[in-house]
Write a structure and sequence with these properties.
mainly alpha, transmembrane helix
């Protein structure tokens, strides 16, 4: 049992394996729906033939951002026991609820908004992904103890 979460470690490992894939499944389904519903010939390759795959990049980068947040939170729970609980709360509260969900709505709107809006959202997601990676490396350097 972990002290912070009161959840058995085997359950945490199981969740850590599947939890980061949930955003890719969800946003991949939304991206497929946008291509599938917009095509008269009912094939996903029609989206490729029209050469408008740039519309799907905000959705996929949003999935990468949300998946990275899930991965960082699960890694912190499993392998960084000395990290404060406030870090996990801030990652999930600020990163997912206050930033991720509004940007997910914008990513869904961005598929039909236009090229410049999609590129701007792509830039925002790339900066957010880089920031989460920087936070993760800082957490590992600070709270990982090699003596135990």
């Amino acid at each position: 049992m972990t002290a912070k979460a009161a959840i058995h470690r085997a359950v945490l490992r199981f969740v850590a394996f599947y939890y980061p894939s949930i955003p890719f499944i969800g946003f991949g389904g939304i991206a497929y729906m946008f291509c599938f519903c917009a095509m008269p010939d009912d094939t996903f390759s029609g989206c490729v033939r029209r050469r408008d795959l740039w519309r799907l990049t905000p959705l996929l980068l949003c999935a990468a951002y949300m998946s990275l947040l899930a991965l960082v939170s699960m890694h912190t729970r499993l392998f960084l026991p000395r990290a404060p609980n406030a870090v996990l709360t801030d990652l999930l509260d600020v990163g997912t609820v206050r930033v991720g969900i509004p940007l997910a709505w914008l990513a869904c709107v961005g598929t039909g908004a236009g090229f410049t809006f999609a590129i701007a959202l792509d830039c925002v997601f790339v900066v957010l992904i880089a920031r989460v990676l920087a936070i993760w490396s800082r957490l590992v350097r600070t709270y990982l103890h090699s003596g135990d």
